[in-house]
C-alpha cells in the first residue's frame, strides 16, 4: 500500500503547484495512484518472500489479480476525469496534435485493458499460459515505463528535479523487482540444477514427477509448501509453473503430482528420465509442523489438493509423529483417488484415520458418498475446538467446508486453506 501511494505522496510534497479545477486535480491524483498501484504489482508477481510472508499461494495471486483490476480502473479513470474537468486534455490522445505523445498513451490504455481482460478470461480467449505470462510481464513493464515517462513529462506536479529523481527511483525499484525475478534470480537456479528421476502416471491420469538434486543437498522446505519448476537445459525459460510438493520434507528427492490441465502439464508424462530441471522455492504458508500440533490435526482435501497434505503426512511419519490425525478426502470416483496405496500405508504407519468421500460410488461401496459437508464432519471428526484444520482443493470444496468448520468452533487462526483454482 505504501508503494502504491508513493507517487502521489511525492507529487504532493514540498510546495504544491497552483490548484486547477477540482475535477482535473482529481484526475491527476487518479493517474498517480494508478501508476503506484501498477508499480506495486511487481512485488506481488515477483515472488518476493518478504512480501508474501504469512500469505498462501492463492492469497498472493488473488491479491495480485484484484489490485491489477484496480490499477486498470484507475488508469482508465485518469483521462476520463481529466476530460470532464477540461476538454482540452483530449488533445493528449489526438495523434494529429502530437503523435509522439498520443501513441504511447493509447498504448497504455489498450495494454492495461488487455492485461485485465486476459487475466480474467485467459482460458476463454484460448491463450496458452506460457504465451500469456510472457506478454503479461512485457506489457506490464511497458505500461509502468510509459506511465513514469508521462508523469515526468507532464510536470505540473513533478517539476522540481528532486521530485523527478524520487519518482524515478520509486517506480524504478518496482521495475528492478521484475528484472531480479526474470533475469538475476535464474542465475542462482543455474548453480543448483535438478535431474528428472522418474515420471509415473497416476490412476486419474495425473503425472507424478520426481526430481533429484544434481551436485547439491537439495531443497529445504516445510511440508505443505510449493515450488516453481522449469524443465530444460536453462532456467531462463518462459515455461515455469508452480506445483505443491508431495514428498516428505525429510527426503532429498522432490515429488510433485501434476494434473494435465494445459499444454505444459499434458506433456509432463513424455519428459525423459535424466532431463535437467530447475526448482525455485520454497514458497507458501500452508504449512503443517507435527511438533507444533501435539493435540493432532484434521486434513480435508479434494482431488489433486491431496498433494501438499501428502507431504505433511509423510513428514509426520518420518518424524515419528504420535498425535492423532484425520483425513477426509473427496473425489468424483474411486478411480480418481490419488495415492490410494500410499494413504492406506500411511494409515497403518501413523495414528491416521482416512475417510474417502465419492461423488459417484460403485455399487459395492460402503463408505461416504456425495459431498463433504457439516453432517459428514460430525460423523467422523472429534470436537474441533482445539484442532488445527487444513483444507486444500478447488473453490467449491473450500466454499462448502470452511463455513461448516467455523460453525463448529474452528477459529480463523486454526483454519488453514489453500485453493487450487488460481490462473
From TrEMBL:
<dbReference type="InterPro" id="IPR001709">
    <property type="entry name" value="Flavoprot_Pyr_Nucl_cyt_Rdtase"/>
</dbReference>
<keyword id="KW-0472">Membrane</keyword>
<dbReference type="GO" id="GO:0016020">
    <property type="term" value="C:membrane"/>
</dbReference>
<dbReference type="InterPro" id="IPR017938">
    <property type="entry name" value="Riboflavin_synthase-like_b-brl"/>
</dbReference>
<dbReference type="InterPro" id="IPR050415">
    <property type="entry name" value="MRET"/>
</dbReference>
<dbReference type="Pfam" id="PF08022">
    <property type="entry name" value="FAD_binding_8"/>
</dbReference>
<dbReference type="InterPro" id="IPR039261">
    <property type="entry name" value="FNR_nucleotide-bd"/>
</dbReference>
<dbReference type="InterPro" id="IPR013130">
    <property type="entry name" value="Fe3_Rdtase_TM_dom"/>
</dbReference>
<dbReference type="InterPro" id="IPR013112">
    <property type="entry name" value="FAD-bd_8"/>
</dbReference>
<feature type="transmembrane region" description="Helical">
    <location>
        <begin position="67"/>
        <end position="85"/>
    </location>
</feature>
<dbReference type="Pfam" id="PF01794">
    <property type="entry name" value="Ferric_reduct"/>
</dbReference>
<dbReference type="InterPro" id="IPR001433">
    <property type="entry name" value="OxRdtase_FAD/NAD-bd"/>
</dbReference>
<dbReference type="InterPro" id="IPR017927">
    <property type="entry name" value="FAD-bd_FR_type"/>
</dbReference>
<feature type="domain" description="FAD-binding FR-type">
    <location>
        <begin position="189"/>
        <end position="289"/>
    </location>
</feature>
<feature type="transmembrane region" description="Helical">
    <location>
        <begin position="105"/>
        <end position="123"/>
    </location>
</feature>
<dbReference type="GO" id="GO:0016491">
    <property type="term" value="F:oxidoreductase activity"/>
</dbReference>
<dbReference type="Pfam" id="PF00175">
    <property type="entry name" value="NAD_binding_1"/>
</dbReference>
<protein>
    <recommendedName>
        <fullName>FAD-binding FR-type domain-containing protein</fullName>
    </recommendedName>
</protein>
<keyword id="KW-1133">Transmembrane helix</keyword>
<feature type="transmembrane region" description="Helical">
    <location>
        <begin position="135"/>
        <end position="153"/>
    </location>
</feature>
<keyword id="KW-0812">Transmembrane</keyword>
Amino acid at each position: 500500500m505504501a508503494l502504491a501511494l508513493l507517487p502521489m505522496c511525492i507529487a504532493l510534497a514540498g510546495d504544491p503547484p497552483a490548484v486547477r479545477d477540482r475535477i482535473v486535480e482529481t484526475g491527476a491524483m487518479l493517474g498517480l495512484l494508478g501508476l503506484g498501484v501498477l508499480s506495486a504489482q511487481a512485488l506481488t508477481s515477483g515472488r518476493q518472500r518478504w512480501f508474501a510472508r504469512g500469505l498462501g499461494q492463492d492469497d498472493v495471486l488473488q491479491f495480485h489479480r484484484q489490485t491489477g483490476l484496480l490499477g486498470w480502473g484507475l488508469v482508465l479513470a485518469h483521462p476520463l476525469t481529466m476530460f470532464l474537468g477540461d476538454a482540452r486534455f483530449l488533445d493528449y490522445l489526438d495523434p494529429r496534435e502530437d503523435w509522439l505523445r498520443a501513441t504511447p498513451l493509447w498504448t497504455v490504455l489498450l495494454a492495461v485493458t488487455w492485461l485485465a481482460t486476459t487475466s480474467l478470461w485467459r482460458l476463454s480467449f484460448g491463450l496458452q499460459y506460457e504465451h500469456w505470462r510472457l506478454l503479461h510481464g512485457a506489457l506490464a513493464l511497458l505500461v509502468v515505463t510509459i506511465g513514469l515517462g508521462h508523469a515526468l513529462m507532464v510536470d505540473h506536479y513533478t517539476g522540481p528535479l528532486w521530485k523527478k529523481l524520487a519518482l524515478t527511483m520509486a517506480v524504478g525499484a518496482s521495475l528492478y523487482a521484475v528484472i531480479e525475478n526474470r533475469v538475476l534470480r535464474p542465475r542462482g537456479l543455474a548453480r543448483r540444477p535438478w535431474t528428472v528421476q522418474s515420471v509415473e502416471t497416476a490412476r486419474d491420469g495425473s503425472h507424478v514427477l520426481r526430481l533429484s538434486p544434481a551436485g547439491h543437498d537439495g531443497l529445504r522446505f516445510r511440508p505443505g509448501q510449493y515450488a516453481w519448476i522449469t524443465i530444460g537445459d536453462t532456467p531462463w525459460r518462459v515455461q515455469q509453473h508452480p506445483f505443491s510438493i508431495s514428498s516428505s520434507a525429510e527426503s532429498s528427492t522432490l515429488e510433485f503430482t501434476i494434473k494435465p490441465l494445459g499444454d505444459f502439464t499434458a506433456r509432463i508424462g513424455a519428459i525423459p528420465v535424466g532431463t535437467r530441471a530447475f526448482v525455485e522455492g520454497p514458497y507458501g504458508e500452508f504449512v503443517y509442523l507435527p511438533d507444533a500440533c501435539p493435540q493432532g490435526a484434521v486434513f480435508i482435501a479434494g482431488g489433486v489438493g491431496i498433494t501438499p497434505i501428502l507431504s505433511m503426512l509423510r513428514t509426520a511419519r518420518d518424524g515419528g509423529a504420535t498425535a492423532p490425525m484425520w483425513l477426509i478426502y473427496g473425489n468424483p470416483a474411486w478411480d480418481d483417488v490419488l495415492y490410494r496405496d500410499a494413504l492406506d500405508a500411511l494409515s497403518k504407519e501413523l495414528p491416521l484415520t482416512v475417510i474417502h468421500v465419492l461423488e459417484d460410488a460403485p455399487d459395492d461401496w460402503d463408505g461416504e458418498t456425495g459431498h463433504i459437508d457439516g453432517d459428514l464432519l460430525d460423523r467422523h471428526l472429534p470436537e474441533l475446538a482445539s484442532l488445527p484444520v487444513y483444507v486444500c482443493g478447488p473453490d467449491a470444496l473450500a466454499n462448502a467446508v470452511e463455513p461448516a468448520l467455523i460453525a463448529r468452533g474452528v477459529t480463523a487462526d486454526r483454519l488453514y486453506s489453500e485453493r487450487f483454482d488460481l490462473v
